[in-house]
Design goal:
102 residues; elongated; mainly alpha; 3 helices; 76% helix
């Protein structure tokens, strides 16, 4: 059954329907006002994410310093890993979306 499916896929990929484009290419044209607003909101969100990441690293570092001073052992490295993971996600969100959708 899979060989029949393979043959049908190869046939359909090699012989597109006459008069139709092989891959649709829609024109992207959003209103200028909308793109300006969306760019502003995304810029503010990116700035807030970066600020939250810096604050998270500073707070985690302060908590680590206080724990060492008190002689307590705590799992701050896992918290720091989560904060740094969030920073990486915020930093790469724009390029990843651009790569996927363009």
């Amino acid at each position: 059954m899979s060989s029949l499916l393979d043959k049908a896929t190869i046939f359909l990929a090699a012989n597109p329907v006459p008069g139709k484009s092989e891959v649709p290419d829609p024109q992207r044209s959003a209103p200028e006002e909308l793109t300006t607003i969306v760019d502003t909101v995304l810029g503010i969100a990116a700035w807030a994410g970066t600020a939250a990441g810096v604050a998270g690293v500073l707070i985690t570092g302060a908590m680590m310093a206080v724990s060492v001073k008190r002689g307590e052992s705590s799992e701050h490295m896992s918290r720091l890993g989560m904060v740094l993971g969030g920073c990486i996600l915020v930093a790469t969100a724009g390029p990843l979306v651009t790569f996927v959708f363009q």
